[in-house]
Predict the 3D structure of the following.
Amino acid sequence: MLPISVRDVRFMPAGRRVLAGIDLELGGEGITVVLGPNGAGKSVLLRVLAGLLAPDAGTIQWGDHAAPAEAAAIVFQQPALIRASVRANVELALLPLGMARAERAVRVRQVLERVGLAHRARDAARLLSGGEKQRLALARAWAARRPLLLLDEPTANLDPTATEAVEQIVREIRTDGARVVMTSHNLAQAMRVADDIVFLSAGRVVEHAPAARFFRKPQSQEARLFLQGELPWRISFDS
Amino acid sequence: MLATFAEAFALLTQLESRLLDIVLLSLRVSGCAVAIGAVIGLPVGAWVAVARFPGRGAVTVVLNAMMGLPSVIVGVIVYLALSRSGPAGSLGLLFTPTAMVIAQTVLTAPLMAALARQIVEDAWRDYETEFRALRLTRLQRVTTLLYDCRYSLVVAVLAGLGRAMSEVGAVMIVGGNIDGFTRVMTTAIALETSKGDLPLAIALGLVLLLLVLLLNAVAQTLRGWAMRRYG
């Protein structure tokens, strides 16, 4: 997969600057964790990368080409699962690919085995636990084998065990060769899974660095304060 | 009064063949009309819920307005279409059960479409982002939403069946209320009441009420089961 170049992407609904000129280069593989305080534009950035929101300005390119939105899969904090079996929910992601029914069945079985839900394939998706639902959502995104996987706070409502299971799956997806970009509020999680960190503040990329360097020695004042637990809004309020 | 009711119950318990024929024809006509109406109306309603096109608001208004379409108007329109000088006159369908099915389909399809639009549109709000992210085509979105809402859509189908079974104007006009051929429960009730044969009218009325109750009980049970099974 070619590197993704995000150039001066702006998103300003009703004149409000949510993304105020994002510049970003993402390599072919690895896990990027997007950090930042609430309202920094993390989720919006993911939706723009997924092609769900059209930026008001700027470009997203893979090499010299416009990035095809269909190359990205996205998993939301609260996945919307249809009233059907676990298997049917995964199969949904394969419908647009025009695969034969038999081929779809094989792919669904493979991916459910990899997320540890093969034994629940026939069960109702909506009756799964929170952690299982999120694993199912990951399976659904993974099944289509899109090269870019976007995860919007995938473990926000999960207990530590379920969080660990999700993180393990995310690592496996990375090993499969996909580029993973995920948002998180959980610094410990970012330390555990990230290859690199993108730190957003007020709709801009303040810092983009390898994870080890970011946590050891953040370059920006905002990132330092964020890591110390002092959110930028609080600083400006105090001043 | 009591004697009339007793006679009506006697007709019911004896399963008098005249009564049975009327009930079976009613079920056949209304069942066919609702099945055809559902095949047309549900996808149309779901498509209107998902699609974005100029004039969508006007289409929604028309669909909703057609829920209250007077059955006699539908009867007259279908009558004109099927009469000898009408566009489908050569088919010779006027005063046949087929004509009654056509009239009831015209009555029930818009009703089911309007209800389906509302049900599917509510679901669409929950799924829109996810389905767009999954890159589902419009057809895939519509079929998936219809499947997801299948137990709620039973209500729309039931409403259609209720409308079909209870209407009298359209089937009277296009069916002609011919004894043993196009006489259904509602037209029979109207006729027998006007003739003063109240026991048969009451017996048919009771059957109609029982059927409606039974259908609603089945639908309620089905929805309850579906909620427990699929969440």
Notes: The first strand of chain A starts at residue 4 and ends at 11.
